[in-house]
């Protein structure tokens, strides 16, 4: 009788603690590690503190001097806005600009991006240049499985002398040019220049712009020719994976993916990813995390009853 009463008491304490912290359905970080930075959830293999992430490529620097704190990829200036367990990293990245006024060039920004371990998502992003006196290029390194890196370059050029001919809502080649990305790009430089210093068009287009952007979040309108002057960063998607070797190559290694999970190869780049088996949910990169959804839903429902 006494033992039973104690067990009941412990259960209630457990439920109260879980409800008070409003934790997600399952733990996403290693025990004792922070699972968020400001507004951003940080699931393992990513982490912010020593012992909390899997190798230096998965370090997230959480800067508390912002309110809310902001997350950056490793020690770079790349803001992280979302990390998914399906191998996607949503970030914000500086755009390239070349700006003029009647006296000449006022500002030029040539961003470089060196990921080395991760790959720019070809499925989610496009390369865009905007301007009416604009020559833009992207030069990158392609990382192909089992071979050395090779260089690749793609460009866009647009010229127009009146806003009248720029379609307002489509990136048509007049004032805006877009192209898809190659697979396997891990290192790139974007440059953008003008041929005539934007003379004659300064009133509606003082700058040329070029950037990689998440296709879903890209909207072009005539006002972009002017408004992007005040935009510094735009959203982009990076593909992440574990290690350099595919599932077949790590197959002999039983610890590649955790229990109740399975290994799969990413569509882009080297390495492998893990996924909980059908009917299981959790973080497949943490031990004993992928649990039967029925078990999880019973736990979840009992929270609800106690909270009412
Ligand atoms: C949190 O992030 C989302 C999208 O990433 C954004 O819409 C929202 O405004 C952010 N909230 C705060 C408090 O920053
Ligand atoms: C946090 O951000 C501030 C302002 O941008 C910067 O001065 C500081 O060095 C950053 N701290 C870290 C640890 O990166
Ligand atoms: C990205 O980081 C910069 C500081 O480098 C900050 O000013 C800006 O608000 C951040 N953007 C987001 C979406 O967190
Ligand atoms: C152009 O910009 C520079 C500084 O960026 C400024 O000194 C100069 O006066 C500007 N010229 C005109 C004609 O506005
Ligand atoms: C553009 O401006 C630069 C100075 O910023 C000047 O040296 C150059 O001659 C100008 N070119 C044209 C075509 O006006
Ligand atoms: C980008 O530019 C830097 C120097 O500015 C150079 O070292 C690097 O090789 C370039 N990367 C690519 C992919 O062209
Ligand atoms: C262009 O489209 C934007 C919205 O996409 C709209 O706000 C703006 O009024 C339009 N401008 C013209 C000149 O049609
Ligand atoms: C991946 O390969 C590079 C060299 O190709 C090596 O330096 C690095 O240690 C490897 N990383 C892992 C996690 O095996
Ligand atoms: C097997 O996996 C463990 C843990 O991830 C790692 O330390 C070890 O190097 C791997 N061995 C091989 C042969 O890949
Ligand atoms: C696999 O899932 C079952 C049912 O949820 C659970 O009891 C078991 O501990 C899990 N195994 C591992 C290694 O996580
Ligand atoms: C690239 C671009 O012009 N993006 C804009 C899309 O629209 C939102 C708001 O409507 C702007 O904030 C972006 O800059």
UniProtKB/TrEMBL annotation:
PROSITE patterns per record: EGF_3
The record lists its disulfide bonds as: 257-274
Question: Where is this protein found?
Answer: Membrane
Predominant location: membrane
Q: Which domain of life is it from?
A: Eukaryota
Q: Which GO terms describe its molecular function?
A: kinase activity; polysaccharide binding
| Domain EGF-like positions | 243-291
Q: How does it sit in the membrane?
A: Single-pass membrane protein
Q: Which GO terms describe its cellular component?
A: membrane
Q: Which InterPro entries match?
A: EGF (IPR000742), WAK_GUB (IPR025287)
Q: Which UniProt keywords apply?
A: Disulfide bond, EGF-like domain, Kinase, Receptor, Signal, Transferase
Q: Pfam family example for this protein?
A: GUB_WAK_bind
- Where does the UniProt annotation place the signal sequence? 1-22
Protein name per its UniProtKB record: WALL-ASSOCIATED RECEPTOR KINASE 2-LIKE ISOFORM X2
Source organism: Salix purpurea (Purple osier willow)
Species classification: Eukaryota, Viridiplantae, Streptophyta, Embryophyta, Tracheophyta
